[in-house]
Amino acid sequence: MNARAARTAAATGTSRLLTRPMLLLLVASVGGMGGFYLLLSVLPLYAATAGGGGVGAGLTTGAMMLATVLAEPAVPWALARFGHRAVVGTGLLLLGLPSAVLCLWSSFPLTLGVCLARGVGLGIVVVAGTALAAELAPPGRRSESLGLYGVSLGVPSVLGLPAGVWLSDRLGFEPVFLMTATLTLLALPAVAGLPARRATRGERLSGDPDGRKGDPGGRNGELGGRSEDPGARNGAPDGPLGAAVNRSLVRPTLILGAATFASGVLVTFLPLALLGGPSHLAVVALLVQASVAPLARWGAGWWGDRHGSSSLLLPAVLAVALGTAGLVRLESPVMVMVSMVLFGAGFGAVQNLTLATMFERVPRSGFGRVSVVWNLAFDAGMGLGAVGFGLLIDRTGYPWGFAVTAALLLAVLVPAWHDRRYVQAETT
User: Fold this and answer.
1) pLDDT at 2
2) Is 226 helix (H, G, I), strand (E, B) or coil?
3) What is the pLDDT of residues 318-350, one digit of tens each?
4) Collapsing DSSP states into helix, strand and coil, what is residue 216?
5) Bridge partners of 223?
6) What angle do CA 402, 408, 409 make, to 5 degrees?
7) What are 226's strand-pairing partners?
8) In 107-200, alpha helices (H)
């Protein structure tokens, strides 16, 4: 048994993954992301049918992702100043309540304003949640903890993405807007049990939400089987931009950004691309993709704790590229379904693998900054994908647009290959 496996076996035998703070974080995340996914494909449809066309549909997702990217760098400061409860609670309110305004007034500028507010809420929830999930992880199980947190983000998409499209088609848009506001409000009670400030190791192991029981393992205990400063060898500075300028994070960031570029294209335009095709094909396709992704994300976390996160990056990126390329055959329901399985598996794995890899390469004090960088890449990629594809399809149509997106993903196989070689060189 190698050293990594020995650490994992020892840790998983004595550490509990699902502590009370972690469970409450998952509940809050499910509520918040449920409100996010329920409208993710609905608002582009709402804008397009109101006369915005493909450009208007792309702008709704693009505006939300722009607000998310602008808000995310401020989240670590807000957490230090106001604590997890106030910040995450504010994020949940911004994700849900603004959508109810669209029941009273309908205009494209107002729709973009709602998207901007929701983008700020999304940025708050994902940055705070990602950093807290890493801090709450027991020794030797950080990747698995991130995988479990990823499931809490992915499960709402299983129901939310297809349900939003289906409900808006059957009931109209206004009931879906009200459901979104209600869902996020229902998640607010869980926020009261989150840690008031940054989690301590005592909290991770004892389930004490405020860390009042101290740190029985010592302030310099290991996290995830690694020392307190695993990123020191990479020369990562400790300032506000420490994670951003850590060169070992560049390749995982590029890989994630390319994958989320494709995701932004898919969730925004797949329902529009399949209009006029077999009944409910878009709903089923979104359901398949959303069901596979969280399972792949959790499975990648299990693998990463035992064999290293970087070892799966190359096949994961290839699966995303092949899944996107298959959408060139939009006229074939079978090809669309196969493409969604491939895309969901690859995209779920890429999310966990890049995040775990980035956490491995910084000290624990840099977790908040890594969360910002990772989420910036995620949301910027999604926003650029939606806006860029909206401009592209006016000239090429959907099949060629998906082909161009797949070509972009194939180019990302190069940094994925180099990152694998980088890890092999570090471990020899």
Assistant:
1) 44
2) strand
3) 999 999 999 999 889 999 999 999 999 999 999
4) coil
5) 226
6) 90
7) 223
8) 108-135, 142-171, 173-186, 188-191
Collect the ranges in the chain with pLDDT lower than 70. Answer: 1-14, 50-54, 197-246, 279, 309, 419-428
pLDDT in tens, 129-173: 888 888 887 877 777 788 788 777 777 877 887 888 889 888 999
pLDDT at 422: 60
Helix (H, G, I), strand (E, B) or coil at 223: strand
- The answer to whether 173 touches 161, Cβ cutoff 8 Å, is no
Return the exposure string of 350-370: e unless at least 16 CB atoms fall within 10 Å of the residue's CB, then b: bbbbbbbbbbbbbbbebbbbb
pLDDT of residue 116: 94
Compute the residue count for the chain: 428
Alpha-carbon distances of 168 from 34, 45, 101, 161, 368, rounded to whole Å: 16, 9, 16, 11, 37
Q: Which residues contact 180 (CB under 8 A, 6 or more apart)?
A: 35, 38, 39, 95, 96, 99, 100
Q: How far is CA 152 from CA 34, 116, 149, 226, 354, in A?
A: 9, 23, 5, 25, 18
- What is the reported pTM? 0.66
Residue 350, SS3 per DSSP: helix
* Structure tokens, 54: 């493909």
Max distance between CA atoms of the chain, in angstroms, equals: 64
Inter-CA distances, 371 with 34, 49, 123, 404, Å: 20, 36, 10, 29
Residue 221 three-state SS: coil
Nearest of 124, 130, 121, 133 to residue 18 by alpha carbon: 133
Residue 389: name the closest of 401, 400, 407 by CA: 401
Count the Cβ atoms, other than its own, within 10 Å of residue 1.
8
* CB-based contact 229:387 (threshold 8 Å): no
pLDDT digits (tens, 9 = 90+) for 107-123: 888 888 999 999 999 99
Q: Pick from 49, 173, 43: which is nearest to 104 by CA?
A: 173
* Amino acid, res. 80: A
Residue 331 carries which DSSP code? T
Query: Which residues, including other chains, have CB under 8 Å from residue 14's CB and lie 6 or more apart?
Result: none
Helix (H, G, I), strand (E, B) or coil at 276: coil
Which residue, among 405, 424, 214, 256, has the nearest Cα to 324 in the 3D structure? 405
Looking at residue 50, its pLDDT comes to 66
